Amino acid sequence: MGCCGSSNKPTHEIDKDALGDFLGGETNLRQIWKQFDKDGNGSIDVKEFEELVFASLSLFCQERDPDMPDPAKENMKPFIEKLVSELTPVVDKNNDGEISWEEFQTFGEYLRKEHAKLKDELNTN
Predict the structure, then answer these.
(1) Torsion over CA of 72, 30, 106 and 123, rounded to 10 degrees?
(2) What does the CA dihedral 73, 29, 105, 94 come to, rounded to 10 degrees?
(3) Choosing a second label site near 98 at 20 to 30 A (CA), which of 6, 39, 52, 81?
(4) Helix and strand numbers, DSSP H then E, in the chain
(5) What is the pLDDT of residues 63-77, one digit of tens each?
(6) What was the pLDDT predicted at 7?
């Protein structure tokens, strides 16, 4: 399921698989960083962060309802924009429009907490 290696999967699916591997304990946060720093410049820009949020939302939707088809990015746009606007001030601590590795660790913690909440909710239903 990992993020490395050749695959005919669309990038979004590879991104989502990488997040699943991270949240499942199969990889570490550094692997997620490498997966989403698409241009390799050492920071996550707004576009890359939007892709990360979209992949996270898609993964959470899939875990909530495995039979549901993958949501289209266009349909998820309002949710992506809302989360990006709420998370950016928390994650991009120096407000420079890019997320450094140090700042990214805050997002990793947030993602783990939200995933744990989802798992708890699914286990109680």
Answers:
(1) 60
(2) -60
(3) 6
(4) 5, 0
(5) 999 998 988 999 999
(6) 56
Residues 6+ apart with CB under 8 A from 118: 60, 63, 64
Residue 39 DSSP one-character state = T
Q: Is the pLDDT of residue 2 over 60?
A: no
Residues 11 and 93: their CA atoms lie apart, in Å, by 28
Evaluated on CA atoms 51, 52, 57, 63, the torsion sign reads positive
> One-letter amino acid identity for 18?
A
**Spatial separation of the C-alpha atoms in residues 26 and 86, rounded to whole Å:** 28
> Which two tokens mark 90?
């928390």
pTM attached to this predicted model: 0.87
